[in-house]
Design goal:
Shape: elongated
Keywords: TPR repeat
Structural class: mainly alpha
Number of strands: 0
Strand content: under 5%
Order of helices and strands: HHHHHHHHHHHHHHHHHHHHHHHHHHHHH
Protein name: TTC8 protein
Number of helices: 29
GO cellular component, one term: ciliary basal body
């Protein structure tokens, strides 16, 4: 029995696809002894031709144009005026406005949308104490996504990640890796999943406390948090909101931000939904998911907002309750019909649960509302490719090209679709463009790996061998390339080299069934039945529906029975 052909299927790369209010003018008192600005002068005393704009208005203009560094510099100059001028500007409440504007500018420089930022570190995965049930029912857990296939392609056609989820068509934080089953796998994750996943999300996914201050202010932090009187600021709602976002995003001091939010919501007599959402965000970042759930639910009762629904769904997904998150999204769609973010959230959950057909339907609903949604187009194209419809997938990827997406992943996928759609004239030119646009070695390795599959398809095994070798030159942890090189070595009769390559592939990617199955076939051929049976069991565990593995195990059991 010969081992399978190039065991790992071709893998298309994932196509990555208000301001502060100015104070009202007051009549000048005689004590200030300043002249009113003449027709050629600005308020600061400089000629209007030199300054151009009043400083605070200039800072506000910079902020509106997203030139946050220039905005912060102008505000710093306003705040560093001599004492006499400070008193004058204080009378016009410009000091307060400049402080507020600089706080917001510094926040925007490091702002990250909390809805999409959902990075789970190794510590959160391994030391997770929030599990509701260790053995979840089929179709109710993201930790066991293979329990609900939903009519999607099998792992023999569509490759899966370490956690058993299918390769998606769009890069998201939740698709960058998977939940490892052992600590050894978890530690190896940054190398095998091609991500720099941090040990904990709090230390790697967000800017560490103090780091952002030194980056944006070489002289030191703009606000000394240890000397703030939070009670005083909590009684000024406009200043308090800007200060909270500065502490939460810029300083990353979650506990201080939580204290400020608690005092502010108490001052508002627990009637301000915005502060409840911020308290929920703090609890979520601190890992107190049940407390965060209570705050988000309370905020939804006061004010129905799409963002609050998305935050609450994040809590349920972290608690591994995808069915509850789906119900929440569907209830939100009843109140916000056609909301793209809710439809996209439902599609993502179905995709992570391996219910590919339902995910495709919701992605199509997304495109009905927003026909330029890159994620929906890429995921539908990927689904058609793995459903043996490369011509239709080609149309979706060409649509992305027309929209202005121009990167290595897209041309890589175009090359694969052209090859399987038998449009050979465009295949090599697409791969050449993908190699030209590759930004790192991992992307280059993906292109060479797929070129190796093209070479196998046209029967040029020497070219395929060179392509898989180039894949390993660019990425030494590419398990699929090791597996396919082993198959080519086996065809040449090099048994020991094939066995070594297959062992490397199985150790790098234990979630793949192809290396285990090929080891079983190879061991059975040379008469090592015990090793063959062990490898066949691992293959069956990785892909329970693989018919060839089941037949091999049946034959080995008959051999053992005869002994």
């Amino acid at each position: 029995r010969l081992p399978r052909g190039p065991g790992a299927p071709p893998r298309p790369a994932e196509a990555g696809p208000g301001g502060s209010a100015a104070a009202a003018a007051r009549p000048r008192s005689a004590a200030t002894r300043r002249e009113a600005p003449g027709p050629g002068r600005s308020c600061s005393g400089a000629p209007a031709g030199e300054m151009g704009l009043e400083p605070l208005f200039q800072a506000w203009s910079y902020f509106r144009r997203r030139k946050f560094r220039e905005c912060a510099d102008v505000c710093s100059q306003l705040l560093e005026r001599p004492p006499g001028e400070q008193i004058f500007y204080f009378l016009l409440i410009l000091i307060q406005a400049a402080w507020n504007l600089k706080t917001r500018a510094l926040t925007e420089m490091v702002y990250v949308d909390e809805i999409d930022m959902d990075q789970e570190g190794i510590a959160e995965m391994i030391l997770d104490e929030n599990a509701i049930a260790q053995v979840a029912r089929p179709g109710t857990s993201l930790k066991l996504p293979g329990t609900s296939q939903g009519g999607g392609p099998s792992p023999a056609v569509r490759p899966v990640t370490q956690s058993g989820r299918p390769i998606t068509g769009f890069v998201r934080p939740s698709t960058q890796g998977g939940r490892p089953s052992t600590m050894e796998q978890a530690i190896r994750t940054p190398r095998t999943a091609l991500t720099a996943r941090p040990i904990t999300s709090a230390s790697g996914g967000f800017v560490r406390p103090g780091t952002a201050s030194m980056l944006t202010n070489p002289d030191g932090p703009f606000i000394n948090l240890s000397r703030l009187n939070l009670t005083k600021y909590a009684q000024k709602p406009k200043l308090a909101k800007a200060l909270f976002e500065y502490i939460f995003h810029h300083e990353n001091d979650i506990k201080t931000a939580l204290d400020l939010a608690a005092l502010a919501t108490e001052y508002a007599q627990f009637k301000d939904w915005w502060w409840k959402v911020q308290i929920g965000k703090c609890y979520y970042r601190l890992g107190l998911y049940r407390e965060a759930e209570k705050q988000f639910k309370s905020a939804l009762k006061q004010q129905d907002m799409v963002d609050t629904i998305l935050y609450l769904a994040k809590v349920y997904l972290r608690l591994d309750q995808p069915v509850t998150a789906l119900n929440l999204f569907k209830q939100g769609l009843e109140r916000f019909p056609g909301e793209v973010t809710l439809l996209c959230g439902i599609a993502r959950i179905y995709e992570e649960m391996n219910n590919i057909s339902s995910a495709a339907e919701y992605y199509k609903d997304v495109l009905k509302q927003d026909n330029t949604h890159v994620e929906a187009i890429a995921c539908i194209g990927s689904n058609h490719f793995y459903s043996d419809q490369p011509e239709i997938a080609l149309r979706f990827y060409r649509r992305l090209l027309q929209m202005g997406v121009y990167n290595c992943q897209l041309f890589n996928n175009l090359g694969l679709c052209c090859f399987y759609a038998q449009q050979y004239d465009m295949t090599l030119s697409s791969f050449e463009r993908a190699l030209f646009l590759a930004e790192n070695e991992e992307e280059t390795a993906d292109v060479w790996y797929n070129l190796g599959h093209v070479a196998v398809g046209i029967g040029d095994l020497n070219l395929a061998y060179q392509c898989f070798k180039l894949t390993l030159v660019n990425n030494n942890n590419y398990a699929e390339a090791y597996n396919n090189l082993a198959v080519l070595e086996m065809r040449k009769g090099h048994i020991e080299q094939a066995r070594a390559l297959l062992q490397t592939a199985s150790s790098l990617a234990p979630h793949m069934y192809e290396p285990h199955f090929n080891v079983a076939i190879l061991s059975e051929k040379v008469g090592d039945l015990q090793r063959s049976y062990t490898a066949a069991q691992k293959s069956e565990e990785a892909f329970p529906g693989h018919v060839d593995t089941q037949q091999l195990i049946k034959q080995l059991k008959e051999h053992f029975a005869m002994l």
